[in-house]
């Protein structure tokens, strides 16, 4: 999971304080593994250093000053590129793909198109593995089978998620 890109996507939805970003990240993406506050603020500092976010205002808080972060055009471009590029079709990519689908829906982007792009990348990789299985040794065939079974499961997830996009949109876009 790309924490910086996910935080940028949340900021594209609306300017936010670090606390609010952590809350939203944990609610949608960090189930069972909340994002540490230190990681949120160090990531936001790096994003600001790299020109992907700016601080719009600073207000005193009970502890440190509360900074409100806004995504820049550079950050928004990076989110757009990240969302539209398929993830390398490898086992256990659901966390990244799930984050992309949820953020696409939050940002009113074409999540179904992203799923279609990912499906195509998976099918391409499955063809490659099938050729390895056909032409390779038993070890190659077994490793290819392992990859194929995981990719098949991913494809089932992509299909099921595609069928549920409208319901998920209602859940993530109040």
From TrEMBL:
Transcription regulator PadR N-terminal domain location is 7-80
What Gene3D superfamilies does the record point to?
A: Winged helix-like DNA-binding domain superfamily/Winged helix DNA-binding domain (1.10.10.10)
Name the Pfam families on file: PadR
Recorded protein name is PadR family transcriptional regulator
Species this chain originates from: Micromonospora taraxaci
Traced from the root, the source organism's taxonomic lineage reads: Bacteria, Bacillati, Actinomycetota, Actinomycetes, Micromonosporales
């Amino acid at each position: 999971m790309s924490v910086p890109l996910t935080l940028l996507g949340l900021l594209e939805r609306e300017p936010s304080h670090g606390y609010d970003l952590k809350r939203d990240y944990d609610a949608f993406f960090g189930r069972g593994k909340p994002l540490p506050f230190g990681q949120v603020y160090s990531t936001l500092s790096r994003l600001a250093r790299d020109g992907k976010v700016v601080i719009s205002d600073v207000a005193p808080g009970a502890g440190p000053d509360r900074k409100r972060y806004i995504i820049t055009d550079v950050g928004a471009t990076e989110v757009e590129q990240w969302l539209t590029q398929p993830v390398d079709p490898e086992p256990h990519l659901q966390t990244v793909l799930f984050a992309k689908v949820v953020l696409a829906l939050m940002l009113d982007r074409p999540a179904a198109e992203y799923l279609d792009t990912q499906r195509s990348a998976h099918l391409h990789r499955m063809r490659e593995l099938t050729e390895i299985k056909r032409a390779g040794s038993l070890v190659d065939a077994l490793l290819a089978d392992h990859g194929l079974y995981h990719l098949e499961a991913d494809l089932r997830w992509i299909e099921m998620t595609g069928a549920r996009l409208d319901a998920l949109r209602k859940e993530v876009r109040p």
